Amino acid sequence: MKALVTGASSGIGKDIALYLDELGYELILVARTRKDLLNVSKLCNNKVEIVIMDLSKIDNCIKLYNEHKNVDILINNAGFGLFGEFSTTKNERELEMIDLNVKSLHVLTKLYLKQMEKRNGGMIMNVSSSAAFLPGPLMSTYYATKSYVYNLTCALYEELRRNKSKVRVSVLCPGPVDTNFNNVAKVKFSIHALSSKYVARYAVDKMLKGKLVIVPGFMTKIGVFGCKILPLKLLLKIDYKIQKGKECSNE
Fold first, then answer.
1. What is the rounded CA–CA span in Å between residue 185 and residue 177?
2. pLDDT tens, position by position, for the chain (251 residues)?
3. Active-site residue identified among 25, 65, 142, 202
4. N or C terminus of the chain: which is more exposed, having fewer CB within 10 Å?
5. pTM for the whole thing?
6. Structural domains for the chain
7. Is 143 annotated as catalytic?
């Protein structure tokens, strides 16, 4: 059995890779930093192939698929965030985020899904966020990308179900997690963050059981439920205050 993990050099991606290795999977690990991927590979017991690649380039996504078509599990984890008001954040950086968080995930999901459908087997887990359920003022583009990932995956689930396919898709929607993502996005959470190891193991276990929407942590589950029942304008006010708190904590 073979699994491909993007964004595997640190954080959730790294811990998902290590847990899949523990479960006996051969791994293909993808990220931009060779040193970090080599460090991850040294912690593994099974066969590991590392791929140094910038997946924000669509041609690289196609190249990755053409060179590694036959995998049993695809984990689309690569992504990053950006903090700030929409009118002041750098457009170029946001477009890079859309390329990585949305376009590359879209392309890889489509390519591998077609291959899995042909053999009627395989699993795809797309990493979204609890941000998918919120409007996200002060991180609007990031939240929008995660909403895309969530809705795309849920739609694919229903298409596969109606086609009676044995291919399974899941979407991981964690709340705050203690990873390097926070440094890249320039935010610091004022509430307790789960460890990436806990989130990774929880996510993989639920994925293997066929769960569609995976939300680790009791408080995050409560938050997601609240997003579904609160009036939108009230939710916007609450969300803005939470986001503003991240900025204050970061100063």
1. 13
2. 999 999 999 999 999 999 999 999 999 999 999 999 999 999 999 999 999 999 999 999 999 999 999 999 999 999 999 999 999 999 999 999 999 999 999 999 999 999 999 999 999 999 999 999 988 999 999 999 999 999 999 999 999 999 999 999 999 999 998 765 544 544 454 457 899 999 999 999 999 999 999 999 898 889 888 888 888 899 888 888 888 877 644 43
3. 142
4. C
5. 0.89
6. 2-250 (3.40.50.720)
7. no
